[in-house]
Amino acid sequence: MATGTDKKLQENRIGLTIADYKGGKSTLCGGCGHDVITNAIIRAFHEMGVEPGRVAKLSGIGCSSKTPTYFIDRAHGFNGVHGRMPAMATGAAVANCDLRVIGISGDGDTASIGMGQFVHLLRRNVPMIYIVENNGVYGLTKGQFSATADLGSKLKTGIVNELPPVDLCGLAIELGASFVARSFAGDVKQLVGILEAAIAHRGTALLDVISPCVTFNNHPGSTKSYDYAKDHEAPVHQIEFVPFFDHPMVEQEPGQVREVQMYDGSVVRFRPVEEDYDPRDRHGAWHHLKEAAVRSEILTGILYVDERKPDFLKLLDLGPEPLVHVGADKLRPPRSALDAVNASLMEG
Amino acid sequence: MDMAGSAAATGPRVNDFSVRVATVNGTGSQSANVVLLRTLFRMGIMASGKNLFPSNIAGLPTWFTIRVSGDGWIGSRRDHELVVAFNRETVAEDVQAVAPGGLVYADDKLEVPERSDVTVHRVPFTAIVREACAEARLRKLVANMAYVGVLAQQLGLDMEDVEAAIGAQFENKPKAVELNLATARAAAEWASGNLPRQDVFRVERGNSTEGKILIEGNRAGAYGAVFGGVQVVAWYPITPSSSLAEALIDQLGELRIDPETGKATYAVIQAEDELAALGMVIGAGWAGARAMTATSGPGISLMAEFSGLAHFTETPAVVVDVQRMGPSTGLPTRTSQGDVLSLALLSHGDTMYPVLFPAGPDEYFSMVAEALDLAARLQTLVFVAADLDLGMNWWIGEPFAYPDKPIDHGKVLDAKDIEKLTEWGRYRDVDGDGIPYRTLPGTPDPRAAVFTRGSGHDEDAHYSEDADNNIRVLERLRRKLLGNVDLLPASVVEGRHGEKVGVIAYGTSHWATAEARDILAREGLAMSYLRVRSWPFDQQVLDFVAGHDRVYVVEQNRDGQLAQLLAVAAPEHAARLRSVAYCGGLPLPVEVVVEGIREREREV
Ligand SMILES: Cc1ncc(C[n+]2csc(CCOP(=O)(O)OP(=O)(O)O)c2C)c(N)n1
Ligand code: SF4
Ligand SMILES: [Mg+2]
Hints:
The structure holds 2 protein chains of 2 kinds.
Chain A: H1 4-9, H2 33-48, E1 55-59, H3 63-66, E2 76-79, H4 85-95, E3 100-106, H5 107-113, H6 115-124, E4 128-134, E5 137-138, E6 144-145, H7 168-174, E7 179-184, H8 188-200, E8 204-210, H9 226-232, E9 233-235, E10 237-242, E11 258-261, E12 267-272, H10 282-294, E13 298-305, H11 312-315, H12 328-331, H13 335-346
Parallel strand pairs in A: 1-2, 1-3, 3-4, 4-8, 7-8, 9-13
Antiparallel strand pairs in A: 5-6, 7-13, 10-12, 11-12
Helix pairs in contact in A: 2-8, 4-6, 5-6, 7-10
Chain B: H1 7-10, E1 13-14, E2 16-24, H2 29-42, E3 47-52, E4 61-69, E5 80-85, H3 91-96, E6 98-107, E7 119-123, H4 125-132, H5 136-142, H6 145-155, H7 159-169, H8 174-194, E8 201-202, E9 213-216, H9 217-227, E10 232-235, H10 242-255, E11 267-270, H11 274-286, E12 291-295, H12 297-302, H13 304-313, E13 317-325, E14 331-335, H14 340-345, E15 355-356, H15 361-378, E16 381-387, H16 388-392, E17 394-397, H17 415-420, E18 451-453, H18 467-482, E19 492-495, E20 501-506, H19 509-522, E21 528-532, E22 534-535, H20 539-546, E23 550-555, H21 561-569, E24 577-581, H22 590-603
Parallel strand pairs in B: 1-8, 2-5, 5-6, 6-7, 10-11, 10-12, 12-13, 13-16, 15-16, 20-21, 20-23, 23-24
Antiparallel strand pairs in B: 2-4, 3-4, 9-17, 13-14, 15-22, 19-21
Helix pairs in contact in B: 2-6, 2-7, 4-8, 6-8, 7-8, 9-10, 9-15, 11-13, 19-22
């Protein structure tokens, strides 16, 4: 294992160090879960050797949505309007299939105002990583409950949430998303593994990451605090990620480990924690989630993955060349084509 | 002059009358209507057809009006000389609508109210159809073709042209052609054997449609997008814009598949709502694609927040608004120019967008294509303000002109450009024209990267809440548009007559206005006429207002929305402006314009 310092200097497969994946200084509250996720993104993109210039970062509005300025400065970013990142990301992904699109959202941004766009993005399986930095509150507007707040969860002011939460992972599995994961900002190792697998995936990779808001929702009575999440986190497996450019496969003891080959050739090894968990079993995943919820457990890990599902660009029958690179000669049909149109319309 | 005066008294009316057909929607009436229009077009006679239909799929009253005009006037008329009455529910008002001396062809099963000043012919439409079409279940589909046959015989339409029109209408469907033709023929034969010869309203073959095209408006707008090089289209169905998107899907499939790869050079996405539609367009535009959506009023309202984002982040996008009568759901199948103020200033804060006003199909084509260039050149959202009349009716118009300028992607810097620059900033006004340079996501040079945001930003796209900076940024945005109005489609002086009275119109209001001006001139009121083709206004528009004592502004809304924009643009001349606004939702009737101006002139 490399130590912290030489890891910083370490070049990845395209010769870039982790500094090349950094962004501006965070202006969030010290200790905010969102900053932990930002760092995990920086690490995962560096380790995977993603070209920074090919990354497109998009977000809505919220503390969480501010974070794209804090990672990969060398990438273009677009901080749009509240809850509408999915549509913008869809447009960008369709316009340029070479882009590695990553969208950052909050639980308010996704599960309330942006719910409509979110579910349709999942249905389309737009190729992108979609991270919800889930703190159960609207951080930026000073701590109101969001739609992912658990029943009975309490605000600092004493207000108790009496509405059932939206389970973003359950919803995503239901709607046919091709990569659904839940993680926790307090479990960076797992988060980085999931992020790397998400980078290796083609299609929508949804990551619902519990990301405590230290200012408004980290107190006793909250179900999205560091302490609560630590106590209730229940990983379904340990994740070992073997990137496509890395070491040859080491034989595993049979029966113990499941392997899933990702779109780019990387392999994810799942080592079950307690009972056997098959992340390719959609119904099983959904049932596990529901049962865990009854036990007040926060199930984490790659809950569901389907590498065969066609992504949206495939459904649109686009070629490998990005639309934005199609030359002007192919965008405007020739004069003769318009002459033919006119001629047929002149016949009446 | 009384256009609808007693026909008998004024002698034969060759190529100069208006027909109103009243049926029930969902009965194939649209095909019959278009066959009539196609026939007139083929006979070289200028005409316009307006489909007045309900917001419902089947069973409610629908009207079709055809204006035949040897003089080439294709504006709509309120009065009709001939009425075909098919619909029990509306027969009373339909007969009421006939001009004195006019003719009614009524289904023989209808009870027709008495009118001594019109001639009523009873036609056994059902019996004719029963005889012509053996299969009972198909009779409903061809029933309307019976009135085509009766009108053909009565007006003197050439049956050979009717036959060709039916062939064109039902192309590739031999059985449909056969049945429709048989019905039309049978009806014509019945008319020739049972109705007196009709000599007052006649058509005569001409050559006034030579070199012209016949097309449903939205198909023209769609062709504009195809030849404008659109790459990403996102849309959500809404009348009257859906047919533009649907035509576009067909046309792109025919004309924009890369012959080398067999792959599409475009993508069309049916979005989940209009917010998403514009969001996708903005995302695609940011990524460097030529992207557009088409919608109508309710969609425009939903797009407000995203419009402001496109304005403030300077992201290219095109929205075609096929306007319908609001407010709210309003009259979804009736036309209007009621979104003008919304479009010009959509969204909160200080915003403004170029708005283009196509009057006919050729302009619909050219303006959609041009909007894609303008959006890229000015780095802004551009609106094309069409309307239901233009979009959903069939028009005889000028052929499409091939764009004379190459596709314009605007001021885009690639990695090589960036490499040569010692420094650059996304929102710096390097050229002094208010238009900055942009880079696209995916450009490999690290210095090309830009973080685009709808929140406050400085000239280098960094977050900023600085007061002076904000003033600079907002001022430049205004300058960017107002300083470049010359790039927008210029206003057209359609005629200048002295410097006393002027009239201004735009979009489809042009057709009734042009004719009204002719009618009023013959009454002794000479008016100059300027047609606005875009907002913000060019200097010629402002000079026109300043150069006339009184300027009538004709439009299809309640509040005179363009007149209001004129008053703001030329406050010192606002007192010269007189609004002639119509919010009935029918294609602007010529009579409304004539009367509106005539009355106001009497007050002078
Ligand atoms: C249309 C609109 N409505 C309301 C707001 C105000 N607003 C800003 S952020 C936010 C909630 C953000 O919550 P979340 O997405 O959970 O992000 P967090 O701050 O918790 O990370 C709201 C309601 C807005 N920006 N736009
Ligand atoms: S308010 Fe909460 S979510 Fe926002 S930055 Fe502070 S800790 Fe993070
Ligand atoms: Mg939140």
